[in-house]
Amino acid sequence: MVEGALWRRWIFFYIPLTAFVVSLLFPFYWMIITTVRPDGELYRPWNAPNYSPFWTTNPTLSHIRDLLTETLFSTWMLNTMIISIAATLISLFCGLLAGYALSRLKFPFAGSLGTAIFITYLVPQTLLFIPLADIIRNFRLGDSPWALILTYPTFLIPFVTWLMMGYFKSVPKELEECARIDGATRWKAMVYIIFPIAVPGILSAGIFAFTLSWNEFLYALVFLSSPAQKTVPVGVTSELIRGDVFYWGELMAGALLGSIPVAFVYSFFVEHYVASLTGSVKG
Amino acid sequence: MAEVHIQNLNKKFDEVHAVKDVNLGIRDKEFVVLVGPSGCGKTTTLRMVAGLESITSGRILIDDKVINDLPPMDRDIAMVFQNYALYPHMSVYDNMAFGLKMRKFDRADIARRVQEAAEILGIHELLKRKPRQLSGGQRQRVALGRAIVRHPQVFLFDEPLSNLDAKLRVQMRVELKKLHDRLGTTAIYVTHDQVEAMTLGDRVVVMKDGFVQQVGEPLELYNEPANRFVAGFLGSPSMNFATVKVSQENGSIWAANAGMQIKAPPQCANRLSRYIGQEVTLGIRPEDLHVASPTDAPDLGFDVVVEVVEKLGSEILLDVAVGSDTMVASVEPHIRANIHDQMRLALNPERLHFFDNSSEMAI
User: Fold this and answer.
1) What is the pTM of this model?
2) So what's the ipTM on this one?
3) Which of A175, A185, A282 shows the shortest C-beta gap to B85?
């Protein structure tokens, strides 16, 4: 909070904050207003009151109804949900163990292994999808959820590992040493002491992994082909853009409904998530 | 009943040789303090006893059983850490019960033992709280409680009081001493604070650069330091040192430099006679200096110029210039001294120390 005179607070706090909030929320507003605007106004703006694209006097839910009844949107939602949760769980499991090992165990090349894992994260997906497509084809996984459940961890595990490595390093080593003197094996010390303390870190890694999987586009586009297998980002863009015809109302309804689960996950865990980004463990 | 024996213990971390040939026998029920400046190997030694560091060479035995390769959980020890290491997600009760749960004690037994320990330490009202709701002193007690519930064979303390403020530290020091008298468990205590070492230890082990310098009862180390390092490390303010040249005149041995000329008392003369014509280090503690009176022998006194006067209430510390050296003298509080005063100090001949200049060992 900026201290001092009222004008200072306005110039340095309220006005920048308002500008920031407005610019962040505007796309969501645009999504909502386009979803509820009738086609007559969408494609013929002179029908809108005062030509204004920012509001409508005839809101409609027909785009949402069309999206749910005329397309496979609910199937795409289910696909995306299953794929994101499965990929997140696999990545969390591997990333937690790897992050713990790299931050705590002393073994040869621990440091260089950590760096190597990070480098794999830096390889762009646009390069990786070519060899991955070959692997998917050889294992006959194409056009099934497994294609994504098994390929998403290729970028999620390095990400989770690195996030957890940093978090585990902030947990005092003595806690674990004390537990081991108290009679716990390394495994028990990890499960009873380190993991419970690392819950904020685990949650934020999980949220990030879930969001990345949920929004992923390229692999989903390349590895899935039949409409019933698609995820929300690919389904919406491939089925609701036909040539040069954009079904704007349905597109925006899809974007709106598709962002709800992610927004829900974020709002539910926001406190833990912020705590893990801003603070470390207090003893 | 637990004796700890450390035999030819060594620890190397890559390039650093942290602990060098440490030999130490700790008797049953004894409270032994390892003390030394940071990096002297005292904590590493303790961690090897705990099983938290591997042993490069040598052996550690608890009750004649070699424990080199036992994991920490099987050594029947408890350790109190400098930062308390309380589990932040558990209540005080669960913190104290954790070790018992891991060892599969039954529920009633755990409750009884935790209550008992909480009574001893006066923390039974805190059992439901989380560590973050406790003050520093309370956390310290919980950490102690967690150690004593298990009735281990050996307690290990790694600078447990250094995170407390000065007043609380003195209070907890007394409580630790009482606790040890009451429980009678063998204890190894690491600290860099020589006052803690002197007040707590049945015996004190002074370490430097990975080597044990001297082992003994606190007053033995204070009165008869084995070398110059031990002499300077123990005692506050620390011992004064001055380089002097040994000579023989009129059948007596003299130690002299630019600022003083002292006749070596008979008990030192014999040992100093080997050093005639050489330089040695003279050591004298501040409290063994006093303002010279007419009854003092003239050849045990020297002239000084007062540089700083520190009035502590129970005593006055005088920083004085003796030739090119400076010394600290602790004098009685009624002495009136001002900066730049010239005065004559005398030393207590029984309490003189001499050290070899090259080996730094006591002569």
Assistant:
1) 0.80
2) 0.81
3) A175
% helix, strand, coil for chain B, step of 5 = 30, 35, 35
Check if B71 contacts A (Cβ < 8 Å): yes
Mean pLDDT of chain A: 88
Q: Tokens at residue A211, please?
A: 């969001």
Over residues A91-149, the pLDDT tens digits come to 999 999 999 999 888 888 888 888 888 888 888 888 889 999 999 999 999 899 999 99
Interface test with B, best of A167, A182, A192 (most B CBs within 10 A): A182
Q: Distance between CA atoms of B325 and B304, rounded to whole angstroms?
A: 10
The chain B residue lying nearest A177, using CA atoms, is B52
The residue type at B216:
G
Cβ <8 Å between A175 and B98: no
CATH architecture of B4-233: 3-Layer(aba) Sandwich (3.40)
> CATH 3.40.630.30: does it fit domain B240-293+300-356?
no
Helix, strand, coil: what percent of chain A each, to 5? Answer: 80, 0, 20
**Domain coordinates of chain B in residue numbers?**
4-233, 240-293+300-356
* Domain range A72-278, CATH class: mainly alpha
> B145-174, pLDDT tens digit by residue?
999 998 899 999 999 888 888 888 888 899
